[in-house]
Amino acid sequence: MQNKNEIAGFPLIFGYIGVLLILIGTITLLPLLILFFYPQDIHEAKYFIVPGIVAILIGYLMSFTIRGKKKGRLKKNQDAIIVVSCWMLAILITALPFIFSGKYNLTQGIFETTSGWSTTGLSVVDVSKTSHLFLMHRSTVLFFGGIGLVLVICSVLSDTYGMRLYNAEGHNDRLLPNLIKSARIIITIYSGYTLAGIILYVSFGMPVFDAIIHSIGALSTGGFSSQPDSIAHYHSIAIEVVTIVLMLLGNINFFAHLFLVKGKFRHFFQYCEIRFSFILIIIATMIITILFMNQFAQNLPSAFRIAIFQVVSALTTTGFQTLPNFHVLSSGALLIMIVLQLIGGGIGSTAGGIKQYRVYILLKAIVWQIKAQFYPSQMVCSHKIQKVDKQIEIQKADIASVGTYVFLYLLIFFAGSFLLSLYGHSLQDAMFEFSSALSTVGLSCGIMNYNAPTLVLWTGIFGMFFGRLEIYVIILAMMQCRNDIKHHGIHC
């Protein structure tokens, strides 16, 4: 029975959204700090001030619903409603500066910020003609999109206040029993890597502003660049190596980073995802290197340099590139890139895709099933995989859950690819482009751009949104909204 003094149900949801709305408004205002260094962009400040302050004020008023009051438990799937609602609000509010500038319509603005929050990197912005303020705005969104809205809030809230929201946003591990400390450790590690990336980029000749943009883009596996030709602009092996390292760090589960920074390398490298990702990179790089040598008549070092960068960029779902155009790739190379994009990065990381953990489970399940055909029928086998700190047993229900998710993911992939193909694009290009959007990669063959039809951009928007929050969370939020409307008259 609910305590009369407890806040629960819709008022509790309303209050939580208010707290997150304050954070969204603050994030919208943060890029204005760059005006100290680029005062020539001050005429664009008004595009940020209005939506930022309004979001903070509305969020502040909404938060009074729960402030100073005892909070009840969120009912089943209400956490999903909060997370999905806040991500939608974050996308809309941070899109307003683009829309208010008069250079982008509603669809284009939402596409750009969906790409940022989802850490995709697909863009309708011409970076050669865009101010430092707007470029920093994109990267600020990218930074917080990589960490996650809820995780930032959890760094200052109690465990009870944020734990279910934390799980609903797609985080499956806690570094420590205390959620606040876990969130702060993740943010500290994430920020430390970003700073290290900036220092390394600058030391290898990259301008400071570009270094900030690319360090955030690589670590968040988002891929936004300040240059039209991305990392290829710098023609530097050192910069490419730094980028590869940052992309790989962004690809790793947040929990595994704690073992890495503590120097527990044995635990780190025995993690099934880490080993699986390196196997994929080695095999894919070898194949694409050979394909590049045959297609472009390149020598081995040159072909290997391009191949390993693009393989890592695709698998980690970052989207940086050193190739001028993906139209030049052979069908074989493009197919491998599509597969890598669909597999994606580590579960609980900033990367998107089906996730390496799920693919690893399915591959192991195939091996277990084949082996089971040779065992006596009465034999009972225990199937385990290696996590960072322990072995865990995989049940049949776990395999079924993973299989269902992968089926839904591929269903959305084929549906999105079909929609893009209706606009006259080859099925190969459509599959590459939509796999990039759904897996939040950002590599593009040019289908989604500033002049793309509205439906093409909205196809990309839905793909990026489902890819970032993962399918179940959005479906659960929609079903719970429907139930609340039906039974309680609550409008979501």
Structure description:
There is one protein chain. The protein has 492 residues and is mainly alpha-helical. It has 20 helices and four strands. The strands form two sheets. A two-stranded parallel ribbon has the order 1-2. A two-stranded antiparallel ribbon has the order 3-4. A hairpin with a 4-residue loop joins strand 3 and strand 4 (391-393). Helix 14 (300-315) packs parallel to helix 15 and helix 18 (427-438) packs across helix 19 (454-469). The chain starts with 5 loop residues before the first strand and ends with a helix. The model has no long low-confidence stretch (mean pLDDT 87). It is found in: Cell membrane. InterPro entries: Cat_transpt. The chain crosses the membrane at residues 12-36, 48-68, 80-100, 141-162, 183-204, 234-256, 276-297, 332-354, 405-423, 456-478. Keywords: Cell membrane, Ion transport, Membrane, Transmembrane, Transmembrane helix, Transport.
